[in-house]
Amino acid sequence: MAEEIAGAGRRVATPIRAAYLGRVGYEAGVELQHRVRQSILDADSAALDTLLLLEHPPTYTVGRNCDRGDVLAAPDWLEQRGIAVAECDRGGRATYHGPGQLVGYPVIDLRPDRRNVRAYVRDLQEVLVRTLAAFDVRAVGGEERERIGVWVGHRKIASIGIHLRRWVTTHGFALNVSTALDDFAGILSCGFEAGVMTSIEDLTGRRHDLAEVGARCAEVFAEVFERRLVTVEPQSLGAPLGAAASRRAVGSEGPAAASERPPES
């Protein structure tokens, strides 16, 4: 368990900051992750593990293990739909980010007691499974390498792709809440055809506000990683405030509940 020593030797859970940023451009989101990561690596006394929650404009991201054939769409199709293409340093192949999708970027230090990449990915899957349960979706984490992510039967509802630098994480997960599923048609998402993707709205017929889903996700993340959740405003992180950002906090401050190659999404 991540913990600190308080007065009189009392042990308390290590804090983790969480912020909901609204809609943020992909490059701006990557830049913010890198700044937070660098402050942790520099052992900045003010640095804290951080969970960034947001959505992106329509963007295909191409991971380190992506095959050129994973991007199926022609340039004019991409332009017509307003979808950008961005390369990134996460594991995995091609995936889609867009409105209605909750993206989570945990920037956390896995040292000293969580230095196990596969265990970290399993914990991310558990966060998503528990979050989905709160919205009446029964899901499971993928067991085989090619099925990393979160699934409802044979449909994939969330993708995971991560990067580690000296055991500090960037990138993370993408959970389809009310995502336009036909936008997956231009890629082989994580190597799968577009028809495999689903969303909370697709499965339940109900549309949820991303800030609401993000709030539950932040609470569950703190529970799974045994941290004390501290919600902060985006401006305190030097983050751009997205156009769709809610002024609601993503959770409440309080006590939390009880060297290998990263898997691909």
Write up what this structure looks like.
With 265 residues, the chain is of the alpha+beta class. It has a single domain (11-237), classed as BirA Bifunctional Protein, domain 2, CATH 3.30.930. The protein is 23% helix and 26% strand. It has 5 helices and 13 strands. The chain has an 8-stranded mixed beta sheet with strand order 9-10-11-12-8-4-3-13, with helices on both faces. A 3-stranded mixed beta sheet has the order 6-5-7, with no helix packed on it. Strands 1-2 form a two-stranded antiparallel sheet. α2 links the parallel β5 and β6 (84-87). The longest helix is centred in the middle third of the chain and has 17 residues, at 117-133. It is globular. Mean pLDDT is 84; it is low at 252-265.
Strand content is 25-35%
Overall 3D shape: globular
At CATH level 3, the topology is: BirA Bifunctional Protein, domain 2
Work out the radius of gyration: 18 Å
Helix content: 10-25%
Q: Poorly predicted ranges (pLDDT <50, ≥5 residues)?
A: 252-265
* Structural category: alpha+beta
Total strand segments: 13
Structurally, how many domains make up the residues? Answer: 1
CATH superfamily: Bira Bifunctional Protein, Domain 2
Which class in CATH terms? Answer: Alpha Beta
How are helices and strands ordered from N to C?
EEEHEEHEEEHEEEEHHE
Number of continuous helical runs = 5
Q: Tell me the major beta sheet.
A: 8 strands, mixed
Distance between the termini: 26 Å
pLDDT averaged residue by residue: 84
CATH architectural arrangement: 2-Layer Sandwich
Adjacency order of strands in the biggest sheet? 9-10-11-12-8-4-3-13
